[in-house]
TrEMBL record:
It comes from the Eukaryota. The lineage of its organism: Eukaryota, Fungi, Fungi incertae sedis, Chytridiomycota, Chytridiomycota incertae sedis. It comes from Batrachochytrium dendrobatidis (strain JAM81 / FGSC 10211) (Frog chytrid fungus). This is Mitochondrial outer membrane protein porin. It is found in: Mitochondrion outer membrane. It holds the Pfam family Porin_3.
């Protein structure tokens, strides 16, 4: 049986998504997505912080040429950051993706550019990127696996200083209905164990435990669940060892319109003004 392991950044993704996504707390967000007949997708997002009242937004346009495996994305934010990304996938070779990402802040002259190469096939997923203006720094990672088991590592090397800035390692197992992973990050000082289980078509569960060896802190634990009410709505709930309770509700109001409500509550200080609520509204056309 063929098996393509996840890329290093996606290790533990199922658990992270269940515990982190669909909780729009502390802000009000609006997102509008439209697609032109020739395949250009426009995305406009606006976000208002409930505490500060600050509003931020960005405009993104993405063009995809599927036959050639080419995509080009442009972004422009209210902080006047201009960004662009060019990707070429499965064109030169199957499983090979080349990318170039850049951004510019004209007011300050701040520039960022990164070139990347990604290659995946059965049993291996490897990536390398070069940050041209930061160091330059080379970031490389690789994950190998077979029959659901996988192991991987990541390393960052600063060319100008001739030193390794960071290194990480991970291992885990992926099955059709569940996955487990262990990640050692920050030079093997921050350990995270995660677990995700699709119990049935309606119920999912996840848990994550984190321990920072550098601070000798206690283990932080977070557990959560997702329950599908029907094909258009689901509930989410999570709680951590500090007593913070997160609740989320997502509903497709009609085709192309989705509403998400979220709240984060400190159950140890119910009378204090520390709780956060928010919502997001997404339009797709």
């Amino acid at each position: 049986m063929s098996f393509v392991p996840p890329n290093f950044s996606d290790i533990g993704k199922s658990a992270n998504d269940l515990l982190g996504k669909d909780y729009p707390v502390g802000s009000a967000k609006l997102e509008v997505n439209t697609t032109t007949p020739n395949g250009i997708k426009f995305t406009v997002t606006g976000n208002k912080d409930n505490k500060s009242g600050l509003i931020g937004s960005d405009l993104k346009a993405k063009y995809v040429d599927k036959p050639r495996g080419l995509s080009f994305t442009e972004t422009w934010t209210t902080t006047n950051v201009l960004g662009a990304e060019l990707e070429l996938e499965n064109s030169l070779a199957k499983g090979l993706k080349l990318s170039l990402v850049g951004s510019l802040l004209p007011d300050k002259g701040t520039k960022h550019a990164k070139a990347g190469v990604e290659y995946k096939q059965d049993y291996v997923f490897t990536r390398t990127s070069l940050d041209l203006f930061k160091g330059p720094t080379i970031l490389a990672d690789a994950v190998v696996g077979n029959n659901g088991f996988f192991a991987g590592g990541e390393v960052a090397y600063d060319v100008s200083d001739a030193k390794v800035n960071k290194y990480c390692a991970s291992l885990g197992y992926i099955a059709p209905l569940y996955s487990v992973s262990l990640l050692a990050a920050n030079k093997l000082s921050l350990f995270t164990a995660s677990y995700h289980h699709r119990v049935n078509n309606e119920v999912e569960a996840a848990a994550k435990a984190t321990w920072n060896k550098a601070t000798d802190s206690s283990v932080a634990i977070e557990v959560g669940t997702k329950y599908a009410l029907d094909r258009d709505a689901f509930l989410k709930a999570k709680v951590d060892n500090t007593g913070r309770l997160g609740l989320g509700y997502t509903q497709v109001l009609r085709p192309g319109i989705k509403l998400a409500l979220g709240g984060l509550f400190d159950t140890t200080r119910l009378q204090a003004d520390v709780h956060k609520v928010g919502f997001s509204l997404t339009f797709e056309a």
